[in-house]
Amino acid sequence: MVNIGTIGKSVVIKGELSASEDLTIEGQVEGKIELKQNILTIGANGRIKASVFAKAVIVQGEVHGNITATEKVDIRDAGSVDGDLASPRVAIADGAHFRGSIDMQQSATGKPADVKPGEVTKPAPELARPAAPAPAPAAPAAPAASTAPTR
Prior knowledge:
The protein is mainly beta. It is built from no helices and twelve strands.
């Protein structure tokens, strides 16, 4: 049986929150949330102002802050995220709100590159794109039909 902790909608936490079990938050958390080996669900009533680190994050409420997940970030249709995402898999449902950047790069170990709270990640340089092929030459125009009488 999997242990799932719940933070009720009347609970307000300011500071650092860590757990070694799956967690559902329906209340308010401000600061830092760390569930490195577990799943974090932000319920429909959840209001988060924090840096989030977890194995997987499901957002049904509001998150203001960066989210780093080693497996997946899933923003559901009523979910809202204002912050950057770092995860190898990201799903954003139709109707969800998202404002930020997404980093889906993986390190050699198959996990996302380490992102520390407050650290700004630089985007990867754009790959050189081949030049667009030259347009095909236009076919020669057909000679205009002469309306002059021939002799």
